[in-house]
Design brief:
Elements: H1 10-44, H2 54-77, H3 83-105, H4 111-139
Helix pairs in contact: 2-3, 3-4
Length: 146
């Protein structure tokens, strides 16, 4: 909603309030539901596991990360507001990449390279993107209620 000089109708405000409440209720139920699931995984998953399709998994993840970065760049160059979504997705994928790289390398000589990559590249870039998105959102014109 852009500042057109007119206030949104009370019906619109009610619909926005109701959608917000339903979204927050859904997220609350999901967060609460994840607690027992996470405990179950912590108790039942083996500490070690031989995997299949390791290369497909990691290359696929990196392809997804490349696509997210490219989408963020293209949308940014085009000054499209969807860059916000792409930047958040890219930042999230970078943080996940750092987590999996480090956690899966624990106990191996590769852990130090993974930590260095996470600390020097992945996490700073993720933080930069998220910080930029928050800055863009602060500059956006949000509808305000008189």
């Amino acid at each position: 909603m852009h500042d057109t000089g007119t206030e949104p109708s009370p019906e619109l405000w009610e619909r926005i309030r109701r959608q917000r409440r339903h979204t927050l209720e859904l997220l609350t139920v999901c967060a609460v539901g994840l607690v027992p699931w996470t405990i179950l995984l912590a108790v039942t998953l083996p500490s070690g596991y031989t995997v299949r399709q390791w290369r497909v998994t990691w290359v696929g993840f990196d392809v997804l990360l490349v696509l997210a970065m490219a989408a963020t760049a293209v949308l940014g160059w085009r000054r499209h507001r969807a860059v916000v979504v792409a930047a958040v997705a890219t930042g999230t994928l970078l943080a996940c990449d750092a987590w999996f790289d480090v956690s899966l390398a624990l106990g191996t000589p590769d852990v130090w390279f993974s930590v260095a990559l996470a600390v020097c590249v992945e996490l700073p870039l993720a933080a930069f993107l998220i910080r930029k998105v928050l800055g863009m959102m602060a500059l956006a014109q949000w509808p305000h209620r008189g």
